[in-house]
Design brief:
- The complex is a heterodimer.
- Chain A is an alpha/beta fold.
- Chain A contains eleven helices and 13 strands.
- In chain A, strand 6 and strand 7 form a beta hairpin.
- Chain A is elongated and about 90 Å long.
- The two termini of chain A are about 50 Å apart.
- The N terminus of chain A is likely disordered.
- Helices cover about 75% and strands about 0% of the residues of chain B.
- The termini of chain B are close together.
- Classes of the chains: A alpha/beta, B mainly alpha.
- The interface between A and B is large, with 68 and 62 residues.
C-alpha cells in the first residue's frame, strides 16, 4: 500500500504524464492529472432510440487540442478494478460510441489526451448504462405517415368493396396484355413470363405475382402455353400456386402443366444465360419481364427483341428501366407496375391501395410546395421531414 | 500463352458464352447448361454452410428449441409434394410476404418519401448560391411533374396532361443519363474480359 501511495505521489509531482500501464494498474481510484492537455468534462449516457448495447460519450476538447495526437477512451464496469483502453479518436473529436457494453451494467469512462504515447486523463464520468428502447422517438413522422396511409387505404378499400366505381386511367402497356396473349395463341407459340430476379420479399415481385395471375387467366382462357422461369425457390413455389389458381379460376385446371413453371438457378447471369437459351430455342411469341431486375435486364430484353417477340416489361428498378424502354414494345415504369395489378384485376384491395397511393402523391405535392413556400415567409417546417 | 489449365477453362468458357453473339449454337448451349448446373450445386453447398448449419442445425443441437418454429415453417414448403395437404405451403409463403412487406413499408417511407422530400424542398438557404437555387427549382418542378405523371385517378388532360408530358420528359432525360452511365460500366466489364483473354490467357498484354 505504501508503494502504491508513493507511486501516486510521484505521478502527481513528476513533470511526466502517467503512462497507460500506470493508469490501468493504479485503478480503481485514478489520480486526476493536473497536466495541461486533459479533456475537461466527460459525460456518458445511453445512446437514445436504439436496441441497446451502446453508450455514447461526449467530452469537451482539451485546451491543447491542436498539439495532441488524439484521445484515448478507457472504461471500467462497476465491479472492475482497472480501466481498460477500449478505443481512440483523432484530435478535434468530442464523441465516441462504445458498442461493446452489456445492457443494465453501469460503466465509468475516462478520456485521455494522447501526446507522444503518454496519456493526460480526465475525471471519470458518472456511471452510465445502456438499455434498449421500444419506441424510436426520432421517427414519429414515419409512424404518422404509415398511420395516415393505412387510414387512406382502409377508406378506399371499403369504398371499392361497397361497389363504388374507382376510376383508373388507361395504362398503355396493360392494354397490350390482351393483344400479347392473343398474338401468342394465333402463332401457336408459348408466352414467356419472367417474374424478375428479386425474391418474394421484394414489393416488385409481389406485384409481379398479381400480374402473373391475370396473365395466366388469359392464357387459360385462350389455351396458350406458358413458361415461367424462376430464380428463387420461394418465388418458384408462389408462381406455381398463382398459375395453378388462375387455371382453376378459369375452370380449366386440367390445362395446367407442371412444366409451365420452372426453377432455373440463383446465379444472376446463369439465370440470364438460361433465359436467352429459352428465348432462342422455344421462341416465345410474347415475353413479359415483370418484377425486379438488375444488370441482366438488357441481355434478356435485347435477345427477346432479336427473336422478334412482342415484349412487355415492368420494373421499379430505375437503373434498368432505360434498357427496357429501348428494347421492349411497352414498359411499365415504377409505379405503373403496382397500378397494373389493380388495373387488370379490379380487385377491391388493390384498387383501394392504388387510390390511397394516388392521394398519398397529392399529399406529397402539398407538403413539398407547402414547406417550400412557408420557408420564404420565415416559417421553417423542414425539421418535420427529418428522420433520425 | 498460359500453361495454367484453370485459365484455359475460364478462357474457353468465356468464348463459348461470347459465341452467342453469332447465334445460338452447341458451344453456347454447353456453357449455359454448365453455368446453371454448377451454380445450383454451388448454392446448395453455400446455403448448407452459411444458412442451414449455422442458423438452424447448430442452435437446435445446442438445445435452442425455439428454432423448431423456423424448421417447421421451412418444412411446410415440402408439403406441396403431397397433394392432400399442399395448401399448407401458403403458411410459410404468407409469413415471408408479410415479413417482407412489413419490413419494407417503414423503410420506404423513411428513405423514399421523407428523405427525398427533405432533399427536394426549396428554401431561401438554397439560393445562397444562385446557380444551386436554379437547379433546386428545376428539381422541384421535375419531381412535381413526375408525380403527376404517376397519378392514375384522372385522365391526363388539360393542365394535368401538360404537367404529365413535362414529367415524362424529365423521366426520359433521367433515363438517357442513366443509360449512358450504365453502358459505360458494362463496356468496362467487357474490357475486363478481353483483358483476361489477351493477358493471362494469350499473354499478349501485361
Amino acid at each position: 500500500m505504501r508503494v502504491l501511495t508513493l507511486l501516486m505521489f510521484l505521478a502527481h509531482c513528476l513533470p511526466v504524464p502517467l503512462s497507460p500501464c500506470l493508469i490501468v494498474s493504479l485503478s480503481p481510484r485514478l489520480p486526476v492529472s493536473p497536466s495541461p492537455g486533459a479533456p475537461a468534462v466527460v459525460s456518458a449516457f445511453d445512446r437514445p432510440n436504439d436496441a441497446g448495447s451502446v453508450i455514447q460519450l461526449r467530452w469537451s476538447l482539451s485546451p491543447d487540442d491542436a498539439s495532441i495526437d488524439g484521445y484515448a477512451v478507457l472504461r471500467r464496469a462497476r465491479d472492475d478494478t482497472a480501466y481498460t483502453k477500449i478505443g481512440s479518436t483523432m484530435r478535434g473529436v468530442t464523441v465516441f460510441e462504445d458498442e461493446g457494453v452489456q445492457d443494465g451494467v453501469p460503466y465509468e469512462y475516462i478520456v485521455a489526451s494522447l501526446r507522444d504515447g503518454a496519456m493526460f486523463h480526465s475525471e471519470p464520468s458518472a456511471p452510465a448504462m445502456s438499455y434498449p428502447q421500444f419506441f424510436h422517438k426520432g421517427r414519429i413522422n414515419v409512424l404518422l405517415c404509415i398511420v395516415a396511409f393505412t387510414l387512406l387505404l382502409a377508406y378506399f378499400v371499403v369504398k371499392a368493396r361497397t361497389g363504388k366505381d374507382l376510376f383508373i386511367r388507361k395504362i398503355a402497356g396493360l392494354a397490350a396484355v390482351e393483344e400479347a396473349v392473343g398474338r401468342a395463341t394465333e402463332m401457336g407459340k408459348p408466352i414467356l413470363y419472367v417474374p424478375g430476379l428479386g425474391d418474394i420479399d421484394w414489393t416488385a415481385t409481389i406485384a409481379s405475382m398479381n400480374i402473373l395471375g391475370e396473365v395466366a387467366r388469359k392464357i387459360a382462357r385462350y389455351d396458350s402455353a406458358l413458361i415461367v422461369p424462376n430464380r428463387w425457390s420461394v418465388t418458384y413455389t408462389v408462381s406455381k400456386e398463382v398459375v395453378k389458381e388462375a387455371f382453376v379460376a378459369e375452370g380449366s385446371p386440367d390445362k395446367f402443366k407442371e412444366e409451365y413453371v420452372r426453377y432455373v438457378t440463383e446465379a444472376q447471369f446463369g439465370f440470364a444465360a438460361a433465359i436467352n437459351g429459352i428465348m432462342t430455342r422455344e421462341k416465345p411469341a410474347t415475353n413479359f419481364f415483370i418484377g425486379r431486375f438488375w444488370a441482366e435486364s438488357l441481355i434478356m430484353a435485347e435477345t427477346g427483341a432479336q427473336t422478334g417477340a412482342f415484349q412487355i416489361a415492368g420494373t421499379d428498378s430505375v437503373l434498368q428501366l432505360p434498357f427496357f424502354v429501348s428494347a421492349c414494345d411497352y414498359t411499365l415504369m415504377g409505379e405503373e407496375l403496382y397500378a397494373a395489378s389493380a388495373y387488370l384485376s379490379r380487385e377491391p384491395v388493390l384498387l383501394g391501395s392504388l387510390k390511397a397511393q394516388d392521394y398519398g402523391k397529392l399529399a406529397v405535392l402539398l407538403v413539398l410546395f407547402g414547406i417550400s413556400l412557408t420557408s420564404f415567409f420565415g416559417v421553417n417546417l423542414l425539421p418535420v421531414l427529418r428522420v433520425q | 500463352m498460359s500453361g495454367d489449365p484453370w485459365i484455359w477453362i475460364g478462357a474457353v468458357l468465356t468464348l463459348m458464352i461470347f459465341s452467342f453473339l453469332y447465334k445460338d449454337n452447341p458451344f453456347y448451349k454447353f456453357g449455359e447448361h454448365l453455368f446453371v448446373g454448377v451454380a445450383n450445386g454451388y448454392y446448395i453447398v453455400y446455403y448448407w454452410h452459411n444458412a442451414l448449419k449455422p442458423n438452424l442445425f447448430e442452435p437446435l443441437s445446442a438445445g435452442q428449441f425455439l428454432y423448431v418454429v423456423p424448421l417447421l415453417l421451412g418444412l411446410l414448403y415440402f408439403t406441396r409434394f403431397i397433394p392432400r395437404i399442399s395448401w399448407l405451403v401458403r403458411i410459410p409463403i404468407g409469413f415471408t410476404i408479410g415479413w417482407g412487406a412489413g419490413l419494407s413499408i417503414p423503410a420506404y417511407f423513411q428513405a423514399d418519401v421523407l428523405r427525398q422530400l427533405e432533399g427536394t424542398v426549396v428554401t431561401p438557404a438554397t439560393f445562397s448560391n444562385t446557380l444551386h437555387g436554379i437547379y433546386a427549382v428545376i428539381i422541384l418542378i421535375g419531381v412535381a411533374c413526375t408525380l403527376i405523371y404517376f397519378y392514375f385517378s384522372r385522365e391526363h388532360k388539360g393542365v394535368l396532361g401538360s404537367a404529365s408530358k413535362l414529367g415524362i420528359m424529365f423521366i426520359m432525360i433521367g433515363f438517357g443519363a442513366s443509360f449512358g452511365y450504365t453502358v459505360m460500366a458494362r463496356v468496362s466489364l467487357l474490357i475486363g474480359r478481353i483483358q483476361f483473354l489477351l493477358g493471362p490467357w494469350l499473354g499478349l498484354i501485361d
